[in-house]
Amino acid sequence: MGEHDTRTPRHRVEICMGSSCFLKGSYQVLDAFQELCRRHALQETVAIAGAFCKEHCRDGVSVEIDGQLFSVPDAEAAHALFTAHFLRGPETSS
User: Fold this and answer.
1) Long-range contacts from 79-82, C-beta under 8 angstroms, 24+ separation
2) What is the mean pLDDT of the chain?
3) Which residues does residue 11 pair with via DSSP β-bridges, in sequence order?
4) Which fold has domain 11-87?
5) For 12-45, what is each residue's pLDDT tens digit?
6) Positive or negative torsion for Cα 70, 76, 82, 83
7) What three-state secondary structure class fits 56?
8) Strand 46-51 versus strand 61-65 pairing type
9) How far apart are CA 17 and CA 1, in angstroms?
10) For residues 61 and 28, what is the distance between their CA atoms, to the nearest angstrom?
11) Quick check: 2 pLDDT over 50?
12) Which of 11, 21, 75, 85 could cross-link to 61 by cystine, CB 3.0-4.6 Å?
């Protein structure tokens, strides 16, 4: 198992880091997505990156998942969006 995996992630998440989204909590949204990827061992399946303005920041932080744009108002909403897209159902807490 110790071989280096060179596969390209199947999913791409871009989180806007522009000034408006920054003020709305883009770093908290980014942290939530990164933590959820680690928790569910999806680091090799989901690539997460910061992005320049997506010009869609009226309602929250702009998050693009595989080309589809979403407005995420906070880390809790980021968690729900991650769950819906990558876990395919509500996550249960232990």
Assistant:
1) 79/32, 79/36, 82/32, 82/33, 82/36
2) 85
3) 46
4) Glutaredoxin (3.40.30)
5) 999 999 999 899 999 999 999 999 999 999 988 9
6) negative
7) coil
8) unpaired
9) 36
10) 10
11) no
12) 21
- Which one-letter amino acid corresponds to residue 67? G
Contact 6, 24 (CB under 8 A): no
- Rounded Cα distance between 14 and 24, Å, is 16
Chain position carrying tokens 């998050």: 63
Q: Is the pLDDT of residue 78 over 70?
A: yes
Lookup: tokens for 83: 């769950």
Torsion angles phi and psi, residue 5, rounded to 5:
-90, 120
**Residue found under tokens 């159902």:** 89
Return the pLDDT at 7. 65
Are 51 and 64 in contact by the 8 Å Cβ rule? The answer is: yes
